[in-house]
Structures are given as structure tokens and as C-alpha cells.
What we know:
The chain has 193 residues and is mainly beta. It has two domains: 16-111, Sandwich (Immunoglobulin-like); 121-190, SH3 Domains (SH3 type barrels, Roll), CATH 2.30.30. The chain has one helix at 108-111, and strands at residues 16-20, 29-37, 41-46, 51-54, 57-61, 64-66, 72-79, 86-92, 96-103, 121-127, 135-138, 147-151, 156-163, 166-170, 176-180, 184-190.
Amino acid sequence: MFWEGYAKLNDGSLTIVIRDIADIAEASAGEIISLEPGRGATITSSPSNAEVYIDGKLTGRTPIAIPDLSSGEHQFIISRENFLKRSIRSKVIDGLNLVLSVDLAITEPDLTKLPQEPTSSTQEIVIKNTPTGFLRVRESASLNGKEIGQVKPKETYVLLEETPGWVRIRLKDSKEGWVSSSYIQKKTVQAPR
């Protein structure tokens, strides 16, 4: 997983790059926050035409320049239908223009609508050695998810789904659950033709 993008750097000011990186570009999100000479704030988004809320009030749609925005700390929410909202708390400084460049991630139900290439192979995973000698299988992709089973190192399972940090597998009893991706190794099994 990687991110490639551009951040304009200005002498004497801080530029902040925040990224939530996912397996596919459409699920990645983040923002670049910078300052340049001027006043107020300028907000752009990808995709454009996203609603901009400042301190809870709808101000307009991206791209938007707000030269009369008062100095001080503000809450910016960038929102567009079928995309996850981004919430950014930042400070507007007298004599400088706050520049927010925001990338929105598509919502999970809409990710399923993206074209999928037919696969002629199946992904399997092999459980790696763990400090405990087993790996917990959870009901959901979270450390707070209820434990529904355990798998042991060197065992092989069918990979059903991936999210950042987790994979969903099918157990021997046909149950399905999530395990940490830190302790698995993927292997591809070619389907017979």
C-alpha cells in the first residue's frame, strides 16, 4: 500500500499531510493542510462539489475560497453523498490563508459497485508463529470483536475478505471470522481450468 500525491510547501510555514491508506485508491482518504500569504481559507476536495461545513454551518461547496473567515480555531467538515465525511480542526491565522486539500474515500457499500476482475485463483493464508502459540478468530474486524475461535501456526485457511489490519477467513467448521493480518502469510492457489 502506498500513497502518491503532491503537497505545496511554502517557506516559513508548516504543511501537514494526513493519510488513511487503503488497499485501493477509492477507499483512501486524507488531507493536506498548509498556509500561504493571504487571509481566510481555501478548500478543495477530490471529488469536487463536496459540501463544506464550518463550525456546523453549511458554507458552500468545493472548491471554495472564504476570505472573510475570522481568525481562530474552526471545525471544518467536508461531506459528499456516497463518500465518508472528513472532519478537520484547524486554526485560521491573521495575514495567512489556510489551504485545505481534502481527498474523500468512497463509502463501503459503494466500494462493492466498483468493477471487479474475474479471478481464476483463490487466495489462502497460512498462520504464522505467534507469541501465544495461537491466533484468535474474532466475530468482527476489531480487537473488541467477540472471540469465536482460535487457529494455530502453519494451518491454512481460505481468504474471504481484507480490511486494513484484518482478514476474514473460513474455518474448518465453515464458520467465518476475522484474524489479524500481522500473523498471516498469503498464498495464491490457481483454480483448475
